[in-house]
Design goal:
The protein is of the alpha+beta class. It is built from nine helices and eight strands. The longest helix has 25 residues. The protein is elongated, with a radius of gyration of 24 Å.
């Protein structure tokens, strides 16, 4: 949780340092790659990654200098599109140094042209390998990670932070994160091979866990009488057996 008047990337390198330290204490030989959008492309974080032996591949915001460095490839992509009528994607790489940076770094440029026109993209990295492979196989996989964040926001309401008190909002976020971990474990272990094996957490919550029930109470016990017409009751019982035996 951060206050709204603070840059979202401020002190990101310090938080990253704590995470890397914890991971390497557990797995000393672990190779770590930081993947992030252009909002986290800050020279302090890049320099820390290089000193700490951490790989990075992060988005780089467009600017006129980058467009000039990749202009030849952008024009080539446009000419190929005009000849074929199909979307064209070309990749190149070059060294680039922003005014505030301490040195030049490797930039991967994607020159894309389609019916909607030019769509250039730039990525900064210290990884070795072919430009297109790094972009398609490593950087673009960031989109799937963002889907998981959206899954928690939409399915488990992690963005309900409307309270005036900071700690109350932080506690709500922690509860949502805990719920996501539990449901991900249920999906990965209890629902493997079932119709809900690839369902989002919101679907699991609504279809499998949100069950109508009647509660009865006497002096000795409290009973929950679940709906006998629940269509996924067999799957629900199998999950209970899986976790509790």
């Amino acid at each position: 949780m951060r206050e709204s008047n603070i840059d979202s990337a401020k002190h990101a390198w310090a938080i990253l340092a704590l995470l890397v330290k914890a991971l390497r204490q557990r797995w000393p030989e672990l190779k770590i790659t930081v993947r992030a959008d252009s909002g986290f492309c800050r020279w302090k974080m890049l320099r820390w990654c290089e000193r700490a032996g951490v790989n990075y591949i992060v988005g780089l915001a467009k600017n006129e200098r980058l467009h000039a460095l990749s202009a030849k490839w952008q024009k080539r992509a446009e000419r190929k599109y005009q000849r074929s009528g199909e979307k064209v994607r070309l990749f190149t790489q070059f060294k680039y140094k922003a005014q505030s940076w301490d040195r030049k770094r490797r930039v991967i440029a994607k020159a894309e042209h389609s019916l909607k026109g030019a769509n250039p993209r730039y990525v900064l990295t210290n990884l070795e390998g072919r430009a297109q492979a790094l972009y398609d196989e490593i950087y673009c996989a960031r989109g799937e990670m963002e889907n998981r964040i959206k899954e928690q926001q939409l399915g488990l309401f992690s963005d309900r932070t409307s309270c005036h008190a900071w700690w109350a909002n932080q506690f709500r976020l922690l509860l949502s994160s805990l719920a996501y971990v539990l449901l991900e474990t249920l999906r990965r272990l209890g629902l493997s091979g079932t119709e809900l094996a690839r369902a989002q957490v919101g679907t699991i919550r609504l279809r499998l866990l949100k069950i109508g029930a009647v509660i009865t109470r006497n002096t000795r016990r409290v009973r929950l009488w679940l709906s006998s017409s629940f269509p996924l009751q067999q799957l629900f019982c199998s999950c209970l057996v899986h976790f509790y035996g």
